[in-house]
Amino acid sequence: MRARESSLLPVEDAREAALFFVVGALCFLAALAALTAKSTYGAARAWTAEVEGELTVTLPGLDPAGAARAMILIRDTDGVAEARLFTREEIDALLEPSFGTRDLPESLPVPQLVGVTAAQGAAGLAGRLSETLAEAGYDNAVDAHSEWAGDVRRMLGTARMAALSIVILLAATAVAVIAFATHAALLARRDIVDVLHIAGARDRFIAGLFERRFWLLGLRAGLSGSLVALAATGLVIAAARAGGGRSGLLPQLSLDLPDFVILIVTPVIAGLAARAAAHITVIRALRAMM
Amino acid sequence: MTQLRPDAFEEPAVRLEAVALSYGASEDILSGIDLVLKPGSFSFLTGASGAGKTSLLRLLYLAQPPSRGEVSLFGRPTSRLKRDELSALRRRVGVVFQEFRLLGHLTAYENVALPLRVMGKRDSQYRADVEELLAWVGLGERMHARPATLSGGEQQRVAIARAVVTQPDLLIADEPTGNIDPEMGARLMRLFLELNKRLRTTVIIATHDLALVRQIEAPVYRLANGLLVREAGRAGETARRRTDSVRAE
What is the pLDDT of residue B235? Predict the structure, then answer.
């Protein structure tokens, strides 16, 4: 059996191993940033949607029996999907940051709290609830979360933009590094390019050699970066779950289909960027020759 | 009435018209070079070291354009050609470099086959020819060796085999026998003569080996002070070995 034809470019050398590491690391960071951006986006959407439909009704000076009567009024108000009276334990937990963990005296005037979930598309519910309760003689304060959710939404939007900017910056850095390395590789192999050129190789034939080499390098480095990003994300999720699940303010920690799409697309983008950089660099260098 | 030779209307294989070459703002290395090599001619190019032989050959194998003047190959002015057309012309030219320029990661066989791969041929199409050529230059047993393990003479023979494997229309050789023993030198010169006679390959050999020049009756062009002077022989004639030379056949 005859040996397969050797590549016209030598097998990768130490420079390419270093480039592989750099591109792999950049792809790892880019994949991680993309996953974070996507996760932040999803969490922000879910969280703001959840928050915007929530209201808290505070009823001061009522005992539990009075609160139960007020609950009937609240449930019957147009636009209320669900209403739930907070238990004493839940109220104590809310007061804990201010009054400590010791049991509060029964004489302390603690208001009754009702959590209300608005029906889809219910507008002006806070005002209606306040009015209904006041007409029935209940002192009340209705806190519509949507009033301050806008600030949170803007904050999450900023975080999302920051993550996307990091993705773009890392991708641009990877492309610049690859272009620089391709140029260095071309200079190091100028003898090969010269011989092929003089032997009558067309520009696209010579460029094709470098394109294939750097496409595969980008793809393999990107794949390595993606796999490490997958492992890192898996570890974070496992650690978060072991630590008691998600906190309400943290992004949803999970890996779903879009996350896997990001992990698959990252090496392809790295490969394509490497290929494009190699093409441009080699063609430009060849154009400088006769 | 004047009798016209059959090749009278043939375009020259090489035509240099008022060619000059300089690097940057430096003085001309070559100036006012006019040269016509007819198809099937055999010529020598001589001159002292640094006279510009290699620079002149670089113009001929289209490694660089002249600073002034025109280089035409096979009747085509190269300054007016597109890049792909220049590549096509280069495929008709075989070059033996003084420093061999073998690719170190390829075997002798792969180095020789390189121009054929560039032409898009498959291994099965050229294997027999390449093996035969390597055997002919005495490297049949070493075809799978890499250049680093070959002697200078062996590397030179690989370089020569690579230059002739495509049976080029123009063969340009820069000191092709500089590193090999006289017997192998004579054998390789015979290869060049065979190509010249049988395939009408135009051959130009740059050398400062006067013994080699004396072996073959052919025009000799000498470069001195950037100028080209024809010294001996009839321009454009096919070469003949002198009867008292090269007895190594």
Answer: 44
Other beta carbons within 10 angstroms of residue A148's beta carbon come to 11
Task: Tell me the chain A residues in contact with residue B91 when contact means C-beta distances shorter than 8 Å.
Answer: 199-200
**Nearest chain A residue to B80, by CA:** A290
Put simply, whether A1 touches B (Cβ < 8 Å) is no
Residue A111 scores a pLDDT above 80:
yes
DSSP code per residue over chain B: -PPPPTTTTSPPSEEEEEEEE-STTSPPSEEEEEEEE-TT-EEEEEE-TTSSHHHHHHHHTTSS--SEEEEEETTEEGGG--HHHHHHHHTTEEEE-TT----TTS-HHHHHHHHHHHTT--HHHHHHHHHHHHHHTT-GGGTT--GGGS-HHHHHHHHHHHHHTT--SEEEEESTTTTS-HHHHHHHHHHHHHHHHHS--EEEEE---HHHHHHEE--EEEEETTEEEEEES-TTPPPEE-TTS----
Q: A275 to chain B, minimum CA–CA distance in Å?
A: 21
Positions in chain B short of pLDDT 70:
1-9, 232-249
Residue A20 pLDDT > 70, yes or no? yes
- Mutate which of A5, A195, A286 to disrupt the B interface (most B C-beta within 10 Å)? A195
Q: Do B86 and A290 touch (CB under 8 A)?
A: yes
Interface confidence: ipTM more than 0.95: no
Per-residue model confidence as pLDDT tens digits over B54-78:
899 999 999 999 999 999 999 999 9
Question: Across the interface, do A191 and B87 touch by the CB < 8 Å criterion?
Answer: no
Residue contact A10–B105, C-beta within 8 A: yes
pLDDT attached to residue A204:
92
d(CA A70, CA A73): 5
**Nearest Cα to B19, choosing from B30, B5, B6, B8?**
B30
CA distance A235 to chain B (A): 43
pLDDT score of B63: 92
Q: Which residues of A touch B106 (CB under 8 A)?
A: 6, 8
Cα of B166 to nearest chain A Cα, Å: 10
Of A15-24, A215-224, B44-53, minimum mean pLDDT range? A15-24
pLDDT for A156-175, tens place per residue? 778 778 878 888 888 788 77
Tokens read off for B202 = 């135009």
pLDDT of residue A146: 67
Question: Any CB–CB contact under 8 A between A205 and chain B?
Answer: yes
DSSP run (H or E) holding A256 = none
Whether B90 has its CB under 8 Å from any CB of chain A: the answer is yes
Burial (0-12, 13-18, 19+ Cβ within 10 Å), B58: buried
